[in-house]
Amino acid sequence: NEQWGYINKKGKYVINPQFGGAAPFDADGLAIVRAGNKIGIINKKGDYVINPQFDSVSIGAADQILDAGKSVDSYFADGLLAVESGGKWGFVNKKGEYVINPQYDYAEAFSDGLAVVKSGDKYGYINKKGKYVITPQFDKAVSFCNGIAAVGVEDGEDDYGYAAYKFGFINKKGKYIEVEFNAYDKKIIISDNLSHDKLKADFAKITDEDIEYGPVLGLNRISIKRS
Predict the structure, then answer these.
(1) CA-to-CA distance for 169 and 203, rounded, in angstroms?
(2) On the chain, which terminus has fewer CB atoms closer than 10 Å, C or N?
(3) pLDDT tens digits, residue range 9-30?
């Protein structure tokens, strides 16, 4: 089996190959590694800060940042890491202590003070105390960025028989924000008037791919700005 380790700039091993998988170190000097079928956290000495015990982790926007070849500030967004254990998701701190016990069917990393979680087949948002700020009600949901999040609701089927979705944008109160979508240059104009409970012109007609990469990072495919 392939084993991963870490080298310095001279190409010499500083942590010998021993992991089934290994992520780059973040700015805090921590890295996510896989040992056997479990995931843990190590420091730059190769010592475990959190012993391998998780089935999976979710690092949210950090994943796309790594794919772009950039360094990550911290895998612990807002001081917490989303982890899966025994089929349920919760959040631990840098000591490996559960701050929010495993109870969700899926969870994303915290962003903008809130985290996307899945309960049953619906998505909602919780705060760092594990309390619902926006109850599960969406079929698709993306992390908040600058006070805005993209959400989707199922809307029949597409031409190939797969589920189709309509997307819109909400504020942190769960209220829909009036938007204008320009399909030509893929810009979303967000109105400063946040009093609308729903979009006047239906949900913004944008693709699942646009939703996934735009609002999460606040860059690339979609640019968000206030009108």
Answers:
(1) 8
(2) N
(3) 999 999 999 999 999 999 999 9
Contact (Cβ atoms closer than 8 angstroms) between residue 39 and residue 26? no
Bigger pLDDT: 99 vs 155: 99
Pairing of strands 187-190, 223-226: parallel
Contacts (Cβ under 8 Å, ≥6 apart) of 148: 169, 170, 171, 177, 190, 215, 224
Residues 38 and 52 sit within 8 Å (Cβ to Cβ): yes
> What token pair was written down for 129?
């105390």
Two structure tokens written together for 176: 């829909």
- Determine phi and psi for 63, rounding to 5 degrees: -65, -45
β-pairing, 38-42 vs 31-35, is antiparallel
Gyration radius of the chain over CA positions: 19
pLDDT tier at 212, thresholds 50, 70, 90: very low
Closest CA to 141 of 133, 130, 132, 152: 152
